[in-house]
Amino acid sequence: MLRPMRETEEVGTAAPVAVNGDVVDVTDAPEVAVPDVAVTDRAVELAATDVTGVPETGVTDVTAVAETAVTDVTSVAETAVSDVTGAAEAAVTDVAGVTATDVTVADDAIERPWWRDAVVYQVYIRSFADANGDGIGDISGVRARLPYLAALGVDALWFNPWYPSPLADAGYDISDYRSIDPAFGTIWEAEQLIAEARTLGIRTIVDIVPNHVSIEHPWFQEALASPPGSPARERFWLRPGTGTAGELPPNGWQSIFGGQAWTRVADGEWYLHLFAPEQPDLNWEDPEVWAEHEDILRFWFERGVAGVRIDSAALLVKDPGLPEEVPNPGPGEHPFTDRDELHYIYRRWRTIADSYDEPRLLVGEVWLPDAERFARYLRPDELHTAFNFDFLACPWEPGPMLASIKSALAAHAPVDAPATWVLSNHDVTRPVTRYGRVDTRFAFEAKREGTPTDLVRGARRARAAALLAMALPGSMYIYQGDELGLPEAENIPTDRRQDPMWRRSGGVDPGRDGCRVPIPWSGAKPPYGFSPNDEAPLWLDQPDDWAPLSVEAQTDDPASMLSLYRTGLRIRRDAPWGVDSELRWLDYGDDVIAFARGERFICIVNFGPQPIELPVEADVLVGSAELVGNVVPQDTSVWLIQTLDRASFDPESIRT
User: Fold this and answer.
1) What pTM was computed for the model?
2) What is the mean pLDDT of residues 342-367?
3) Which of 64, 260, 555, 578 has the fewest CB atoms within 10 Å, measured from its CB?
4) Which residues span the domain enclosing 594?
5) Confidence of residue 19 (pLDDT cuts 50, 70, 90)
6) What is the largest CA-CA distance in the chain?
7) Can you tell me the distance from the alpha carbon of 244 to that of 653, in angstroms, rounded to the nearest whole number?
8) Of 283, 317, 340, which closes a domain?
9) Catalytic annotation on 365?
10) Distances from the Cα of 613 to the Cαs of 444, 650, 656, in angstroms?
11) Which of 285, 292, 294, 365 is catalytic?
């Protein structure tokens, strides 16, 4: 059982805390005194230009987000910001492939929580943009590209770990949670990035990794230097082994990365690591672990961060008896996944997040198949949102997709939490590749090198999936490069692979490097404008055929994936369905997902080979593919706006 601090103890100190033997219900703990950090909320009013090349839309005044200029990637954006009657105007310099435009920023009023329908862009900073020419993405590179992100139409940036790390797991083995890895920049640069993004109406979310630390973290080094049973060791799961002389691990738990989840230290004890051996798990039975992470939250919240994404949020708490795993455990009975005691932690964190003038956001990475157990994390006094991995992993088939959407909406409704729609992230095969295969679902155990892929079909389906996700109620997450239609980079040379999943599987699992390759910005050959230094090797090599996928190549192409994302996100921000509108399902047959939102908006997604005839009394807002005639072809999504008088509108009646 967890041992939280006594109610009389101060929260947030890293000093050792005395504990009584009783469990304290943290939901009754006093409010944590946290300094208020006032952050002015701003929204970007982007100049828009007419979309002249969207095929056969029949749209009245469909506009695209202004293609805002960004600075040269070799330097930090020089942005002049001044207050003009409550508004700011940021002038930015030019970069190849983007039209020079001023960005006007105005104050906005908070009418509803921003995160309920936000578009969040995931920045894998190592692969986003390199400003100093060392082949590794950095904070200066992101700052230079902020206008690109504003023009795309996103509301927030989520950064994967940017902390100091020996990189045993691409930064998820953290040695210092209150600093920035020198390869990426400095704390000062991070603070500037947070502030500059906010002037463009973009908030910042950072990763928190509470399940484990790096073996180079001072706590773990102290534990190794301390005797068994010492307070320093109690912060981790360091335990005696089994067997005649302790030569066997404490139990048979297996690492998520493959192999056993225990590693032996010099004095004979074993430490637990659900991931790589370089990532020892923290013991959330220890009150110092509680206090440390609460202080980490405040550290970043007080620097203007709008929220945190909690890595491996369902894995923190372990059964202290360390029992073996059993098939089909009951709810809350798995020894290290989805333990009921987790909710004490997140209620405590919610108290901290809510104590700011603008409450901070808590987003959970929660991989759970049980929708009811998943929803427990989203109760009003716990996390605000959590990733919908079921939708991410769904095959491109109407039955499973529809079931996943309905299940997510039903699970979130009782706790009044918005669903999240995620097509990919830094751990999974990119949609263009995944949807081009015979097996279009995502599963770690199914990943294999050399799987045949039809990238043309995959790109068509990825476009349709993007419009489907944008049209659903709730928030949406976009992984960097998906807006460019990047495929998975495959056939990476053995000596260039970085991912421990590949190493620990003996090469059976191709790993996650393929979705983490630096994105292309401009030019005909690598590094495609990612780095100003054409001679410096990138941390992961880019394919030689990515020139047509660069930002520069797609910016002025109305049929490109980038133009589709910009148009779809602009219309989404305009919310043609209204606020908190009801979703109603429409029956177009088994091969189609169709629904209406609000009084006039309709989304139709055709998965099957039979073309679907469009309603007569409706105009097309945007389609994922060219519409020939008045039909929706296979693997195509289309957004419609009903043209009948609102009072007489009946979605079921529009079928022809």
Assistant:
1) 0.81
2) 97
3) 578
4) 584-654
5) very low
6) 81
7) 76
8) 283
9) yes
10) 38, 17, 7
11) 365
